[in-house]
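re: ur msg from earlier - yeah i can do the NAP complex, just paste it... oh wait u already did. ok heres what im feeding in:
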Amino acid sequence: MTVTDGELRGMARARELGTGALGTTSPNPAVGAVVLAADGTIAGEGATQPPGGPHAEVEALARAGERARGGTAVVTLEPCAHTGRTGPCADALLAAGITRVVVAVPEPTELAGGGAARLRAAGVDVVVGVEREAAERGALAGWLTGVRAQRPYVIWKVAATLDGRVAAADGSSRWVTGPEARAEVHRLRAGCDAVVVGSGTALTDDPQLTVRDAAGRNAARQPLRVVVDRRDRLPATARVLDDAAPTVVSRAGTPAELLAELFARDVRRILLEGGPTLAAAFLRAGLVDEAVVHLAPKLLGAGPSLVGDLGISGIGSALSLSVADLTPLGGDVQIRLHPTRHTGGGARTGGPATDGGS
Ligand SMILES: NC(=O)c1ccc[n+]([C@@H]2O[C@H](COP(=O)([O-])OP(=O)(O)OC[C@H]3O[C@@H](n4cnc5c(N)ncnc54)[C@H](OP(=O)(O)O)[C@@H]3O)[C@@H](O)[C@H]2O)c1
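and the outut:
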């Protein structure tokens, strides 16, 4: 597979564009696309628009205009060949005179597949699989989990002290971490379709669970707020029930049931914000795809641990995670991890449930 440095830079930019669209495209994939003019310079950029709106390639082509002719499209997901709520992207690329297409991830759904073949049949040079893993682990992760496992992608986020406490012995938990880490939580929320907590967190902390800016103003677009409250303990006065964002109070008996409920509502990315009991239930069921841990350089010595009982008695059975990256956040540290061994559960397989495609 031969790709130019300019195409690799285009692919990195396409991934960034896809990431920027997270939280707005579900149940469709958050795709990024860059059109390079024949001279290799960037002619247009685009990302998937909210459902019913143009796909990433069409956005990028519109920006490129005539400069797309004889150029290259660099896109994180194979251009679709089907007519859903919008027309086939493969046809749009042909109509614009694109002569080469560089793709990261092949389209996994039969419904939207066939784009690369259609382009090749029309004489376009198509390369598929360029930096595929980075694209799959990035903005496409939620959508791909939906296609492959018929459930949303779960990001478990927790803020803890150096000794792994999420609250003090008296239950107080505000400001475990500093302002930079808290701002990052709002960015994480904005990139998800739903934010989930258990009734314990809702009762103890009374969080609002909205996306807010540094001044505390609510963002225009808000993810769905979800409280799992199987014994109807949430009071009507809870802040999560205010009108700042839509809220679901679920009585789902298990994490798998909850994920099925949310998947049916087109939720593809979930931020699981606690607490330790609900997080343990997800981990035991093998339903955490990514963990984002904010560690504060503080010690409490007592108080609830960041995760509840996982049913593990020996070190040999520890749930292992691999570190994806470490980022300083003000005085705190963010660790992003992926579980490498689950204590149970597993992915189910099934067909596509979206209008697919890029
Ligand atoms: N620092 C942080 O990042 C952070 C984040 C969140 C919470 N916290 C702290 O954590 C503490 C609350 O801990 P917690 O463990 O009580 O909170 P939690 O995990 O949010 O809530 C636990 C409750 O969730 C309900 N639940 C719903 N589905 C469940 C399932 N499948 N499995 C198990 N439970 C399920 C159960 O109540 P029902 O049976 O009534 O449904 C359970 O009692 C507070 O001190 C809070 O400040 C800290």
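cool cool. The chain has two domains: 7-139, 145-339. ping me if u need the other ligands too
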